[in-house]
Amino acid sequence: MPGPLYSRRTLLAGTAALTLAGCGAATERALSDVTLSVWRYKTTAGNFMAAAGQADTPYQVRYVDLPGGPLVLNAYAAGALDYAYMSEIPPAFALQSGTPLRLIATHQGDVNNSGVLVVKGSSARRFSDLRGRTIAYTPNTNNHYYLLKLLEAHDLRLSDVQAIGLPANDANAAFTRGHVEATVTGGISALLTESLLGGRWIVRSVAGLYSGNFCISAHPAALADSLKRAAIRDYLRREQATWQWIDQNPDRWADLSATLSSQPAALFRRLAREASRPALIVPPAKAAIASLQHVADDLARFALVRDRHDLSALWEPGLI
């Protein structure tokens, strides 16, 4: 269980006296002066904090709505983000490009309902049947990584299939219109494709290929600011409490998710029911740190990043 949230009194006590450059006068900044820029997407905790009773923060939260992946790293590079959730894939790209971020916690995610769907009528019954056939994926994402790991596990190379890299929406469209036979997908998009569009799983879980871990990250400049650091610590614990609320209230979460996405609530209930484990935020542990490094090493081995990078320097413990 997480520790108690910081009280408003404790947080507001964390003020910092700052000298105004050029005038010698001193002023005090309070936590109420802080605006924390947080990445948000349809399935992230920021959408459910109000329902979980965690939205009344003693600082301002500015949500930045982006599709994810490279755009989140671009926002970090531009100094437009203080805090973001991401998979184990972006940190290696961030280190390679010099994008400023630190990893402060681990989000234990799901490995079920992620894998490969084939179109209705496909003769493929197992992944190895896709040799020589078309398969869509989204480059430099989890789905790209899943594809490369599945190929490796079945003694295949990328050249053994007709792999077509497309943005996520385009990959879904190519699959639903029958332009490709298979697609690498996961989460609610996969269930929607399966249940409403006739897709059929040939790989339904990436267990053994991917840990299911995600990373909670923060901008180093935000962490270096004492008040923003306090806000990040508080928001992190509120997110932790929100995920616990989601685990305890799957039907309410499904209804809210359906409203946000205009997709059937039944699919979100199924996603929660079939999850491999509860979605929880935990402090970074040795196993999670090793898992992230393993992914980074794979990305180098697959030549998705130029060199092998030691990601241990990205971790900043002690915020949770």
TrEMBL record:
Residues 71-185 form the SsuA/THI5-like domain. InterPro entries: SsuA/THI5. Gene3D superfamilies: Periplasmic binding protein-like II (3.40.190.10). This is Sulfonate transport system substrate-binding protein. It comes from Sphingobium scionense.
